What does this fold into?
Amino acid sequence: MRPFAYERADSPETARAAAGAGGATSSFLAGGTTLIDLMKLDVMRPQRVIDINGIGETQIDLADDRLRLGASVRMTDAERHADLRRRLPMLTQSLALAASTQIRNMATLGGNVLQRTRCPYFRDVSWSACNKRAPGSGCAALDGFNRQHAVLGTSEACIATYPGDFAQALIALDATVEILGRAGRRQIPFSELHVQPGQTPDVETTLAPGELILGFAMPVEPWFSRSLYLKIRDRQSYEFALASAAVALDLAGGAIRQARIALGGVATVPWRAREAEQALIGRAADEATFQLAADIAFSEARPLRHNAFKPALGRQTVVRALLQAAAMET
Amino acid sequence: MVRHQPQESKKRSDAAPRSGGGFDRRHFLAGTATSALLPLAFEAAGVRAAAADISPTPTEVPGRSLELLVNGRSHRLTLDHRTTLLDALREHLGLMGVKKGCDHGQCGACTVHLDGRSTLSCLTLAAVAVGREVTTIEGLAQADGTLHPVQQAFIDHDAFQCGYCTPGQIMSAVACIEGGHADRDAEIREYMSGNLCRCAAYPNIVAAVRAAKSQLRS
Amino acid sequence: MAIVGPVQKQNMGRAQSRIDGRAKVTGAAPYASDFPVGRPAYAYLVTSAIARGRIEAIDLAAAREVLGVVDIMTYETVRGQVKKPSFFAAGGHAGTTIRPLDGPDIFHDGQIVAVVLADSYEAAREAAYKVKVSYQAAPAAATFDSPGATTEDAADASKGHEDPAVGDVAAGFAAADKIVDEEYRTPTQHHNPIELFTTTCAWSGDKLTIYEPSQFVYGLKNGVAEQLGIPPDRIRVISPFVGGAFGSKASVTPRTALIALAARRLGRPVKLVATRDQGFTIATYRAETRHRLRLGADADGRFTALSHEGWEVTSRPDPYLVGGTDTTARLYACPNVYTKVRLVHADRNTPGFMRSPPEVPYLFPLECAIDELAVKLEIDPIELRRRNDTMTEPIKGLPYTSRSLMTCFDQAAENFGWSRRSPQPASMRDGDWLIGWGCASTCYPTAVAPATARVTLWRDGRVKVETAAHELGTGAYTALAEIAAARLGVDIGQVTMALGDSDLPPAPVAGGSNTTASVCSVIAKACDAIRARLGLDAVMGNAAQPLDPPARAAAFERLGVGVVEEYAEFVPHGVKPDGIDKLYAGIPRLAGGSSLKDRIQYAFGAEFVEVRIHARTREIRVPRAVGAFAAGHIVNPMAAHSQLMGGLIWGISSALHEATEMDLGTARYINDNLADYLVPVNADVEEVAVILVPERDNQVNPLGIKGLGELGNVGTNAAVANAVYHATGRRIRDLPIRLEKLLA
It folds into this structure.
């Protein structure tokens, strides 16, 4: 860990101002579960650390048709919210399945969506080839051990998987992100927060330096109660996803009126499978339909040596999630 | 630079029970002829005497004087900004019950309570803990040495073998019960999954949590 | 004041909660890195980023500028100051002969290339990342099939190794009705005790104190003395509590001498807490293995021939060998047996002991092949084992001292409900979950070693036991205290234990599951000597006769003393009388298993698991495991239960989770952390039943104790693989069994 200047901000505005001030690279410190981890590994080397614990929004405002989550809400606090669990099971499940209790006690929602990849070649600075860490240096994972790596949204420069769970729920639910920038508050669709690696895998989000996430907002439809987050992993708990699916179904009779599908563990960014969703609309909520959607979701998958199983696993995950959602009593 | 001088750590912890026999700690005192560097007994759970000797020479990097509230007592320390709560507790306050197992939030051995919530001290900067209440394994038993029901249940159910993960397990278990997450075995197992036990005492840990919960409830 | 009992089962002691429990639940138990030393310098290792080649240059300028850095050791500054370590298998102490900081050569990934010393941990870590090492990398062989890996026969590589064989296997296979002929693979695994590899060294004049978690404090003392070129009596090793070991702390690793050297250079104590990832390369691991196993049987299921060939990976310089054919050749009756073990040298750190080192990789193919043969023969797999059960090992015709294998199968099968199993694969299902039931034998050699102890009895009944045995979580403090309490007729609360200190009388390495048998034996001997001094009869076997307080007081009165102290030595059957001298020199002499000339001694068990596999996504869970084990006299059924339960979970973990992955192009470990090297979490474990089967064996040692610490995790790999077959109809012969191996 490199030396840094530490300061505690007393409001989001002063935090943003401190982060934007002169020259030094800055990082916001909330739960610390990503930042401290990566600073110890010498992967992140901020010259200034701005502690935003104790500031920021900690409200959960659930209205009839809208939800707003403050960025400083801790994961466990959101996942245990009784009405949220009932009306947006996908969202609370994505939080509860994300990590250990201690990490979820510490991590904030805002920080969680910005957690960084678990690619071992990124996390260990003794590997010289990592375009995300050192632009232009290459990608050791392409020919290396790549079981956990992505099959969707990859590039020749980077195949690192986006590791989070909550973000899949946010992208599936058409959430927006409220950001505090130099020019004040602005909102963007959550789907525009993360960017695929392309030729610049070091650029992971559309946030400008010093910009701070204030919260998330989303419309809440009655049919979101028929939703879930399915996470497939080797262990029963406390592991990143090999594949995951956040799904919601709006059923009328036996037919599908609307659907949402987002994928985790298989893509470089939070991944919305919009074409697969479209394919469901108007069809019967049965296995054949779900299989069709799953095939579409992975039609562009580009597997490598050790993650060759991921398209198959991902398809099965989607089918299983949709079948479970269709069978839910809401 | 201010030399680091813990204010309180020369006192024995009130919460320090004597070990109830069993293995011999005095033995290590008796052998000091070989080394003047073994001055300290292991009589107290946690806070060791003469902590000023334990702490390293401060370095001229950005640091700050701060106050940590640990197990109900306040300690003024001057720490490098980079010092984690885990290293502050172990290397500067001599609270060796909190364990380092991975230093990256993957094993749970360093679990403490921060304002009552189970927290990984390895991923928490000491500076972030300022103004918050830190509770470690050393702060669980009563002043007279009576064990917390979870501690006793761990002994009764043989919920550990090597004992290295045990302080973290117990801190998580206490939070599990206090937070109302110990109603079903499956719930206990999920809640406790952030605390690895390589000896694999898991079924006994679940039994201990279940037993302690019914005792705390009654 | 009960001495023995309440007896739960025949030939078992009383269930006793741990006497060190209070220290462990209060955080007071001192592990090696918990010992305060005055104003230590903190060490941080820099390890190599290549697996083979040479260091071209080391640039320390930026690192030296870090405030608080006091010294940086590299081969340029300390070369020649540590002598070459002697490999344990050649009668020495070290787990590797690779000597870092002795030259520019790199032999494996993560080799120590510099030791940064600073006033604070934070400064040492920062500076370590600023040490710039440039390498001249050479192509590195990662494992089997890697270009540059070389193969040799184990019999050539290691003096002690013979490939056991008997009869004519060609004729045996010709006579077989059914034959299984398959290849099996087991992966690299790392112990990953939760305690990190730590070393604190402090000099006082020419005397060195080492605080390091150790399974053998005498071995560490003598080994480091050899490397530093100083007399062993100048070194004291202190390790009263070990935070898990599983073999990883049994032999001397290079870090200790380097930290001792650092402390001498600085004139102050030095504390090293190596990081989790460094632990993968600065210590040992279980090497990957390959097997070709052929097993034939006649139509009645009697084995006609067994051929077991094994290949094991090791480092370039060291012939580390487990050679588990010693066991597999002898486990069942079979007239024709052929075995062959080969070592494959690659650019790796030297592997070493990991819980049941030979049995875990070698029983996996055998116990899978038996299940495969049972399917071909249409015989129940338990019945097939029963038909080949034996009280005489087939290679030399030596008798087993005791063997309760089929009793274990019967009791475990009943508890598990095996009779309700539908034998057809993929025939049991619960909704979306495929259910499979599988079983396997487990066994572990009963080894006993020379040991010494000093026991003191005070007139008021206080007892002190001093022996340099080790508490790894095995319950040594408690089991050893129980023996002393029982034989001296005092309550266990009156017994004070001192372990884990090389200033105490020596005890053997806490490896090979020998501690309880060896050290209980010597403590019993010392206690009997005390009884003799007091004019009382010795205790025979485990039938302790009460020594009540009035009788004790009268005896002290007669003798006219207040304290009686006895030092005792114990040399087991099969060990030469110089075993005690060797023990003092830090060389353990374990005897037993298949190494005796007149008999063979093993503990046995039977393991059953239920797997559930999701029909679509194929994740594998084990909601239920049952093991029945017989291991002679059980000193503390409570601790024995915990160890066997932990062993079963270890076995499940080995079958489904654990594998150290490698980047094959560079021979570097990839998942060197606890998020990616998977071990079970609490939620992975539901029901685990352990049945202790009573067994009496008065030959193995005077107390009739067989070790059991490594018995629990041996059969489980195969039991899980057999259950996976039963659930799905698919044989997975390459561990670990992960969902991708079961997807369409």
Observations:
- Residues 164 and 175 of chain B are 19 Å apart (CA to CA).
- The longest strand of chain B covers residues 63-70.
